[in-house]
């Protein structure tokens, strides 16, 4: 897959390219896929959590519970 990095996508920083699938069980039309860059799944997790939760402690546990269940990371390539 070739991605034009000049468009400001994918989000994040790193040498690997990831698809992050967010599943909304209540309204499937709100489910989406975003493309991210990260060096590892842990690095991806940290970046996505910062983007989705920020400093809002109320959603920290909800995000952690959703990772791997409703928020699904999939490595799809690397930056060359």
Q: How would you describe the overall organization of this protein?
A:
The protein is α+β, with helices and mostly antiparallel strands. It has one domain. 24% of the residues lie in helices and 30% in strands. The chain has helices at 41-52, 60-66, and strands spanning 11-12, 16-22, 32-38, 71-78. Strands 1-3-2-4 form a four-stranded mixed sheet, with helices on one face. The radius of gyration is 13 Å and the shape is globular. The model has no long low-confidence stretch (mean pLDDT 89).
Which SSEs are present, and which pair or pack?
Elements: E1 11-12, E2 16-22, E3 32-38, H1 41-52, H2 60-66, E4 71-78
Parallel strand pairs: 1-3
Antiparallel strand pairs: 2-3, 2-4
Brief summary:
Helices cover 24% and strands 30% of the residues. The protein is α+β, with helices and mostly antiparallel strands and 80 residues long. The chain has a four-stranded mixed β-sheet with strand order 1-3-2-4, with helices on one face.
């Amino acid at each position: 897959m070739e991605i034009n990095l000049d468009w400001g996508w994918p989000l994040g920083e790193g040498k690997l390219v990831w698809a992050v699938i967010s599943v909304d069980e209540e309204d499937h039309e709100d489910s989406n896929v975003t493309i991210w860059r990260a060096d590892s799944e842990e690095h991806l997790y940290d970046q996505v959590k910062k983007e989705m939760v920020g400093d809002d402690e109320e959603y920290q546990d909800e995000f952690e519970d959703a990772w791997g269940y409703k928020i699904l990371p999939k490595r799809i390539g690397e930056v060359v």
